Amino acid sequence: MRAAARPGPPAPGAAGPLTRRRAARRRGPSYFVREGVAGFWRSGLMSVAAVTITMVTLVALGVALVVAGVLDQLTRSVERRAEVVVYLNDGVRAGDLAALRARLLRLSGVTGLTYVSKDEALSDFQQTLGGKVDLGDLLSRNPLPASFRVAVDGPDRLREVADAASTLPHVEHAGYGAETADRLLGLTRAVRLGGAAAGGLLALAAVIIVLNTIRLTVFARRAEIEVMRLVGATAWFIRWPFVVEGALTGAAGALAALGLVAGAYAWLAWGARLSLPFLPLPSPEQVALMLAWKLMVWGVLIGTGGSLLAVRRYLSL
Amino acid sequence: MGPAVAAAVILPGAGPDGQDPAMVEFCRVSKRYPTGVTVLADVTLRIDPEEFVFIVGPTGAGKSTLMKMLYREERPSSGTVLVAGRDVTRLPARDVPFLRRKVGIVFQDFKLLPRKTAWENVAFALEVTGTPPAEADRRVAEVLEVVGLAARADAVPAELSAGEQQRVSIARALVHRPPLLLADEPTGNLDPDTSWEIVQLLSQIHLQGTTVIVTTHDKTIVDILRKRVIALERGAVVRDEVRGRYAGGG
């Protein structure tokens, strides 16, 4: 009782028409991708909706990532300076300056200080602008204050030193980088949280829409699925094309979102470089690279998640 | 996993009682639905390799359910169903596809894919089970030859007569070279002449060594062929004759 129906070789006459026939198509990854792509097109407008909502989700996520990234970079550039900057009123006489220097050095926690004159402050600033602009030509008078840069022996002494310094005569304001850094950190955290919340809600909507798109494909292919089951295709062989379709939908949404967010950032960064050249912004290339893989991973996760749910709910094998 | 299971399905050990292994064995099989409907009631029967069996009976007698249990589309509420010595009621879900590659199935409504040609419909069964294309091409050519449709291989189902469509579906059922062929009302949609041709094709396949089980309403065919007939009524076997007729007695 071995396999039956074992006919002889095909009759000579039959070889002609049969050999002209298209060869049986290859299975394997290319089969799943081809069927996945076919499903994507077959779902038409529904696929467009799924790609769009995925894109919107990832734009929200991308914007949050970029803003948080920029804030991060700003925070770090501020934090690096572990010193208190004591800004002076204009027109302090040399004797008062020497007295102030002595009093600052006597404050507990202070390990040293350097004086930055108004002229030096201006030329420093000019340097951060890349030396392209001669501010001396533009300004009738130097708006920058002179300052003492006071080195402190630990970051926990910064506030104490700054508070003490600001009570001294001729001091206009004493501040430290960490103050700004703290505020930036808070802002970064808020952006991250907001991004995660908005992204999470949108991702949920995206997953549901992908799920419904895949359900349409399952419905459109129900005859084929039935035959596949009956001739002994394995469950995963039947499922894969749907998972591929979902992943493709997610990837398409990710590409669209990447284009939008990276493009918008490049445009804004270009503008900022002209008007606020001292801002330490990450380069558009850096941002695009960071976004590319994060958005792609999330897009594919959303798409695959939606299709796996659809396959579980609507494809009973 | 695949090859091991397939081998177990084709090459069973001897039955527990030392007899030659049966191709199909139903052992006190019942099927009841929670609604209280009983489809099969305590069915016990044995079909040996290379038999040709008609299962007859009125609509709702349980013929289709019986067939579905053989390819694990249905499971009994109680009892065991052995196919080639293997208890398919306990087959893990992941092994069911490998059972189905060893059981060819033919339906009343053909279940052909309308956009695919005859060739592609048959090749599809191999394509989705991972047969290498060259091997698949060879086998499709072979089975289309067996069912006499080599010349119509490029036609889509809409261009084929009902009889030709049923031949394509038989070719698809044979393309995995199953030792067991199930045909559930294969002539239900066909005129008498075409029905007769299809039944003759099934007999030919049987003569090549395949076990064939056919459910039918067609009295004429059953009475002419005089093969084994199992009659079901209200889910129970009421008659089992080696050279039977559609109706009992005569």
Automatic annotation (TrEMBL), chain A:
* Annotated spans, Disordered: 1-22
The membrane-topology field of this record reads: Multi-pass membrane protein
Any Pfam family the entry gives: FtsX
Q: Which controlled-vocabulary keywords does the entry list?
A: Cell cycle, Cell division, Cell membrane, Membrane, Transmembrane, Transmembrane helix
One GO term under biological process is: cell division
In this protein, which residues make up the domain named FtsX extracellular?
A: 83-172
Q: Which GO terms describe its cellular component?
A: plasma membrane
| Cellular compartments annotated | Cell membrane
> Does the keyword Cell membrane belong to this entry?
yes
The transmembrane segments are 48-71, 193-215, 227-244, 251-270, 290-311
The segment(s) forming the ABC3 transporter permease C-terminal domain are: 198-315
Tell me its family.
Belongs to the ABC-4 integral membrane protein family. FtsX subfamily.
Could you tell me which NCBIfam families the record lists for this protein? FtsX_Gpos
Q: Which PANTHER family match?
A: CELL DIVISION PROTEIN FTSX
Q: What's the protein called, per UniProt?
A: Cell division protein FtsX
Task: Please report the organism this UniProt entry assigns to the protein.
Answer: Candidatus Segetimicrobium genomatis
